[in-house]
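Inputs:
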Amino acid sequence: MSQPEQSAVTAPDAAIADRDALLAELARVLPAAALLSAAEDLKPYECDGLTAYRALPWAVALPQNDEQVVAVLKVCHARKVPVVARGAGTGLSGGATPVVQGVVLSLARFMRILEIDPLARLARVQPGVRNQAISEAVAPFGLYYAPDPSSQIACTIGGNVAENSGGVHCLKYGLTLHNVLKVRVALMNGEVIEIGSHALDDPGYDLLALMIGSEGMLGVVLEATVKLTPKPRTAQVVMASFDSVIEAGNAVAAIIAAGIIPAGLEMMDKLATAAVEDFVHAGYDLEAAAILLAESDGTAEEVAEEIATMSTLLEKNGARQLRISQSEAERLKYWAGRKAAFPAVGRITPDYLCMDGTIPRKHLSHVLTRIAELSAEFHLRCANVFHAGDGNLHPLIMFDARNPGETERAIAFGAKILELSVDVGGTITGEHGVGVEKVKQMCVQFSREELEAFHAVKAAFDPLTLLNPGKAVPYPRHCSEYRLTGSAR
Amino acid sequence: MTDHIEEFRSRILERKPLRLKGGGSKDFYGGPLAGEVLDTRGYSGVVAYEPTELVITARAGTPLAEIESALAARRQVLACEPPHFGAATLGGAVAAGLSGPRRAVSGSLRDYVLGVKLMDGEGRELNFGGQVMKNVAGFDVSRLVAGSLGTLGLILEVSLKVMPQPVAEATLRFEMPQDKALDALNCWGGQPVPLAASCWQDAVLTLRLAGARAAVTAACERLGGERVAEVEAAGFWAGLREQTMAFFAGDAPLWRLSVPSVAPPLSLPGPQLIEWGGAQRWLRGVGDAAHLRETAARVGGHATLFRGGDKTGGVFAPLSPALMEVHRRLKQSFDPYGVFNPGRLYSEF
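Outputs:
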């Protein structure tokens, strides 16, 4: 596989670092089992969920406590060796792609839930704790951790903080940003700072807002305090199908205009529906142009009221079929397809790229029409799943990497979709992050001055640009290269 | 409107300290006022409002009242209820970053910021965030600007997420000592009760419920207490949000203690009023600043001299050296010549 962004992930000054001397120093601060450097041991770390981009680091450190993390950072800082922090490696934008001649800092061994305070509704956890493990641990108290990215079985809270992860319920319950109260962070120079508090605010600048979604470029999370939410008593979902995407979009707008914030509001197009139906047999309407899932949660009375209103609005806006889940099992069955959309598409194609733009919903039909045209142009199929409530669109571009040139074509197709998202007033990434994947498209969304501002923000935390360098924010040379071939502003 | 932008830019490029000012409603807040006034009120107006996308974008000088009435016409609100304290503008509200009674449940003003257009110390117009709900492209500078008291740049335009007005509301009143009230608030917070705001003062807990009609009705039955009439309730919550109720009257210094909601009753000289389910505690009186700060810090919070009093010891809780260094570098990168609201947040910059 080619490495399209290799130049962006190379060490800033390779000559400074010396591999053997580095390994010797790391061996002094880490137990032998916590330091990997043999090629076969490094291999599992060569990529994250974005497998199209791979690189072998010099070493992988697997520290077990804060002191070891700080020691690794200090060694690397002194030797000016880049460090890439890594959680479960489920990220979809290459945020944890290693830097060659760098160190991968795995937080996988930080797996402890340190404190659960049901009265204060918070949990203090180490960064390697899995998203779903928090909800499982606090379930006996009638609480849960609200953000639910599709990877929640595997992904870790440290990675969620880095990416500001969302999920299918974030229109109502917010993103990671809205559900993390405090982080303890090691800066690249080894200094440890606390940001946020168990109170509702903190004096000074809102550094927590900067840290969440910073793609591991500002600091390494050592500990996070997350907010816990009371579990809704009950939930019910309406499944509606439509003859056109426009009708489905109008139905979504009508629900919001009626003053309802559904717990989940998801759309799938015909191709995506076919793929998931074949996989989970949820009974989706295969003739429909679009399927809509609208969920209500709360007390039984609340849910009944909301489901009735939503059903009326869906019908009024042309739903051809309407089904309301009659049991928890049925609700989960309706959702199973949506939640399994990525693997379901994975079954019908050797490879796929998942895009992540967010668009103002009023442009949905224009964007989907344009994606269909591009699909024909690039000779690649594309299925669309859509967080309809918040405008976050996931086109899944299908390709076969074994066919020469097809990977490049898929990447070019994806780039067009991202540019389209920006053109209609949206963004290139709603929840997956920029990473290495979309770093060039940042030149489309942001001006040179804005990118300079981002570099300055990074420098405020990491003046030597050693922490996850080359990710998320492009350098001017990337943009000038991109402008020669693309349509950057 | 381009005239305003050019005027702002030329003022900024003079590189002399500027005091950014909207309606002046929060002149009392933060460190001493310094610099020549730059008035944003001419740069006003709603740029875009999409009720079905839950987004409003407006220029900084737009009166907050104008925004709220535009929202009300479509039965929507700024869920965090930012206080006006007078003729507030949108830019000032975002710069101050203050939230009202509903904050503990709704999230803070910062949580609703989707995008900001900023003019930095070099007179450059910079866009961060955008007009969509989910956006992780680039560092979240738009939310960093919220609550920065204008020290990072001149806010030109803001996009906010808006929410539907709750269908139903009810206000309940309970006779309850402070410790019992704190316990009750924290317990209810962990249950599916449609809490919207709380206020404890003088052994009386007032509770606002808001949400679906069925949920509010059910909660009223379950919680009991004395139901407060609609008009009286509306006046009460407005008085709390705008700090016009008796507790806030007079010249005695007003301290704001932001603490974990489960912090025990704080024994401090002077009357207290507790909001946000226990997480925001107001204190009147000339307490010793160091003692107050220490008390708040001991329970995991911080204290702000919110209004009045002696500001010479600083208004906000001091930062650790490492955090101050990060603040200084951020300030330096957005405002290299120290133009914007010097000393308003910390005397160091």
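Remarks. The mean pLDDT of chain B is 97. Chain B touches chain A through 84 residues (CB under 8 Å).
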